[in-house]
Amino acid sequence: MAGCIDRGLKEVKAEQKEIREYVKDIEKIAATLKPGEEDCADRQKKFEELIDEFKPAKDPIRQHMAKVMISFLAGLFVGEGKFEEIKDNLDLERWFRLPKSHERRIHGHRHAGVRIVQEGATMVHALAAHAAHPGQFTVNDLLEYRTAREPPCQKQAIDRRKVMRKARSKKQRPILLAELERRYRETPNF
């Protein structure tokens, strides 16, 4: 087996050298995206310098890197000073990673579904509660939330989802249309 691996590595030695150079370039790009000691403006400047470095390259992969970087540039370094906790779009994506993985585990699909959009106002905080709380929750920790209610925007989104699900159903659609017609007739004409 070791002999097969060695022969395979000899065959792709030239390609590996080229790929290692690409990995170094990607590491430079990733360094500009990580919030850290440098502020957003400095990271953006380095990001743009890398674009200027990759754009004139004869290598099609580096040219493609430049095109992708240009397409992300408009929204990547936004909100400096306004959103202290969310440094850039990648940080925002990290913040939503937990509810997405939670939803994927629940229904077993790759796509997280629309539930995050409709119930995210309360679900995200519940799923991320362990990050700010040391140890397990006790009854006393949870007592202050016993009267909490979901926000009106979330209730409205859930109601809209119910109506749309009925509208898509062949069995429920006639019932929904009859209900909507009845509600329309009962409303006073202005």
Features:
single chain, 190 residues, mainly alpha, 10 helices, elongated
Which secondary structure elements does this structure contain, and how are they paired or packed?
Elements (H helix, E strand, L loop, with lengths): L1 H10 L1 H21 L6 H15 L5 H17 L12 H19 L7 H13 L1 H4 L6 H5 L8 H17 L3 H15 L4
Written account of the structure:
By secondary structure, the protein is an all-alpha fold. 72% of the residues lie in helices and 0% in strands. It has 10 helices and no strands. The chain has helices at 2-11, 13-33, 40-54, 60-76, 89-107, 115-127, 129-132, 139-143, 152-168, 172-186. Helix 3 (40-54) packs antiparallel against helix 4 (60-76), helix 5 crosses helix 6 and helix 6 packs antiparallel against helix 9 (152-168). The longest helix has 21 residues, at 13-33. The model has no long low-confidence stretch (mean pLDDT 81).
